[in-house]
Design goal:
The protein has about 140 residues and is an all-alpha fold. The protein contains nine helices and no strands. It folds into two domains: about 5-70, 434 Repressor (Amino-terminal Domain) (Orthogonal Bundle), CATH 1.10.260.40; about 75-130, no CATH class. Pfam families: HTH_31.
Amino acid sequence: MNPFACFLHTIRMQRGIRQTELSDLIGYEQTYISALEIGKKGPPTPEFVEKLITALDLKGEEREHLLKAVEASNRKLVIDSDMPQDVFWMLQELRDRVSDLTLAEIQLIRQVLKLKESYGNSYVESGYRLHRRKKMEAQM
């Protein structure tokens, strides 16, 4: 289940609101809310998110948690075209194996991704990115 689906179900249960009641509050079909909750649809549109924030009067941490859950539920990834080819190969390998990863493997990958944060400013980046020259630099 994606993070938004989990958040929506949890917040609805905490508030004691049925899907039909929520659909009346925000003006969307109950079937759409159900599809969002089971992860069949998503992430929701910005309009849906704003109506949900207003209808449930989400503030502070709840609102931030919702917005992070929406962002984390995005199933598409756009890669800058000037990234090193190793990035593309790594992502291809991940696409090929993501459905077979164990929870331990997922946690390990997430820990590796956090390594840069733990090094702070002393982290030395390896690899390179191609940088396009501006038109003025390219003229001869």
